[in-house]
From TrEMBL:
Organism in which the protein naturally occurs: Tianweitania sediminis
Residue span, VOC domain: 7-132, 153-270
PROSITE patterns in the cross-refs: VOC
Highest taxon in the source lineage: Bacteria
Protein name per its UniProtKB record: VOC family protein
Gene3D superfamilies: 2,3-Dihydroxybiphenyl 1,2-Dioxygenase, domain 1 (3.10.180.10)
């Protein structure tokens, strides 16, 4: 069993409109845009990162906004819901705020002994807030959301699978322990960075998901550094997984592999961080380009959709 994984690092999803996406995560949810860059493989598309003050691993939601992309179809073989942690008693504030801003799909419930508020992002994204009194992480204080109710970071992510057995075995191998069951959902936990839970929902009769706007593209798990990442890569490869070489993503190094249930996993380093090319006080304000795409700056600054702060 691995001991290098520290919980979630980031979750990357797809969107249709960059400004709508930016407005939702910065204005509605009160997160900080910590990086404005482009997709490494499609540089005419933004890669937008939202999180806490520093973009701490375990707090960062990222998006590829592809103009004119069709909406995804929810189903099995995907991360169906991304869940953020808020303080005890915060859901009343959030329900009023989300209703006032016309957010759709609101639904209150209780799961695993915690109160939760589910809702949709701009493209039907499956999102939720969970009250977690044990979460001591500091929130981003640069929005109009009061500190005592602000988002702390990720709480969990929920995968929908036709058969969860092999993926559950993989999670155990990665250091997660079975925690609780709630109906068809099994929770796995790790003592990590605060973003410590993965829920596996088994839906044997459900149709497979179709990737599109509102879909999670991949989910990333955190390791401290490149040495720990290489240990994880070797262990996964030795177990039979087809793992990519280490890829430099400027703000972290990444490896990827496809899980038995169809979900794309990434293992990302906590180093070097989002301040490697920007001062901490101005994260996300200017367009940053990977060196291989630096020559495209004049074109990209004209063609990419302008983003309001």
């Amino acid at each position: 069993m691995l001991n290098q994984i520290q919980g979630l690092h980031h979750v990357t999803s797809m969107a249709r409109d960059a400004q709508d996406n930016n407005s939702f995560f910065t204005r509605t949810l009160g997160l900080r845009r910590v990086k404005t860059t482009v997709n490494f493989d499609a540089p005419d598309v933004y890669h937008l990162y939202y999180g806490d003050e520093r973009g701490t691993p375990g707090s960062v939601m990222t998006y590829f906004p592809f103009p004119n992309i069709t909406r995804g179809r929810p189903g099995t073989g995907e991360v169906g819901e991304t869940v953020f942690s808020v303080p005890q008693g915060a859901l009343g504030f959030w329900k009023k705020r989300l209703v006032a801003q016309g957010v759709s799909g609101l639904s209150q419930s209780e799961s695993f002994g915690q109160k939760r508020l589910a809702f949709h992002g701009p493209d039907g994204d499956g999102l939720a807030l969970v009250e977690d009194p044990q979460d001591a992480r500091a929130p981003y204080l640069g929005s109009d959301v009061p500190a005592d109710v602000a988002i702390r970071g990720f709480h969990s992510a929920s995968m929908r699978l036709r058969d969860g057995g092999a993926t559950e075995e993989l999670l155990r191998f990665m250091g997660y322990e079975p925690a609780e069951n709630s109906g068809t959902i099994k929770r796995f936990a790790i003592k990590g960075n605060g973003a410590d839970f993965i829920d596996v929902e088994t839906l044997p009769g459900a149709a497979p998901a179709r990737l599109g706007a509102g879909s999670v593209h991949h989910i990333a798990f955190a390791v401290e550094n490149r040495a720990k990442q290489l240990e994880v890569r070797k262990a996964l490869a030795d177990t039979g997984f087809q793992v990519t070489p280490v890829i430099d993503r400027d703000y972290f190094w990444a490896i990827y592999f496809r899980t038995p249930g169809g979900v794309l996993f990434e293992v990302a380093t906590n180093e070097p961080g989002f301040d490697r090319d920007e001062d901490m006080a101005h994260l996300g304000e200017a367009l940053q380009l990977p060196k291989q795409h630096a020559h495209l700056r004049p074109y990209l600054e004209q063609s990419l959709q302008p983003l309001e702060s």
